[in-house]
Design goal:
This protein has about 325 residues and is an alpha/beta fold. The protein is built from twelve helices and twelve strands. The chain has one domain (about 1-205, about 260-295): NADP-dependent oxidoreductase domain (TIM Barrel, Alpha-Beta Barrel), CATH 3.20.20.
Length: about 325
Amino acid sequence: MKDAVFGGTGRILSRPGLGCMGMSHIYGAADDAESIATIQEAIDLGVQLLDTSASYGSGHNQELIGKAIKGRQDKVLVHCKFGSRRNASGQSVSSSASIDTAREDCEDALRRLGVEAVDIMAPSRVDPEVPIEETVGALSRLVEDGKLRFVGLSEAGVESIRRANDVHPIASLQMEYSLLTRDYEAEHKAVCAEFGMALMAYAPFGRGLLTGMFESAATIPEGDRRPKDFPRFQEGNLEKNLALVANLRALADAKGATPAQVALAWAMAQGDEVFPIPGAKSRGHLRENVAAANVELSAKDLADLGGWFAPENVAGDRYGERGMGRVNR
């Protein structure tokens, strides 16, 4: 594992962390017993950063984590997003970062996780109907009340990050970041450095594209929502992106690693502030992810990867029109 200071918390945490979203049936079937065993093994292996949201399974995810960390709460930092609501199929249907929602979701997280204070909370998205100062002010009051330790942001624009820090120190930013999605590098990396914030890099596998699990459109399971929800999986884009992944696969094979491990190693090599949070809902995938910390990439490897996956070479946006309208604001 690769240790680094997790932004404004001052805590030294291991990398990578663990994204728990898939444990609540958002990407197909999941088994609660295996999910709990996966979280517990993660802690045994030294994983300390867990990511969840009030919206994952409408509270199921936080309850699952609460069961897994019982008696070991001091071993982990649980990052909780709030405000988003999902339907039964896992699709986001509404989002609010109001004062009332912040307090309600914090109280629910305390109960579900079985903790005295939530480690860190962030609005799932910046709410265009609520000034960021109001959202962060509500979280700041929860800190004052002893119900919350740190404040974070998720998919916020640079100006929102600056305004938020004027109200309360922001410990971290959660943002999609991978070989396929490098928006963070344009402006956010500099502002995170300015305020001493960690980056929680979600979707470090490009929603499966970077794992090598797909070889063509025909290998995407019938009913899989990715081609519908994510343009990079759509006809015309998928073929171009898979050609990039072929280069990644070849490099991974040469190193005796998996494409997913090389993708994670690349992300961690971009700076000590980068904490990838790959999802895993089985112990086998967890072990593969943790072992990525042992993959060594040379300067040439990093240059090759950076060149192959230069933003202009990636086909399609990371979200559809609605999703893109909810990020970087």
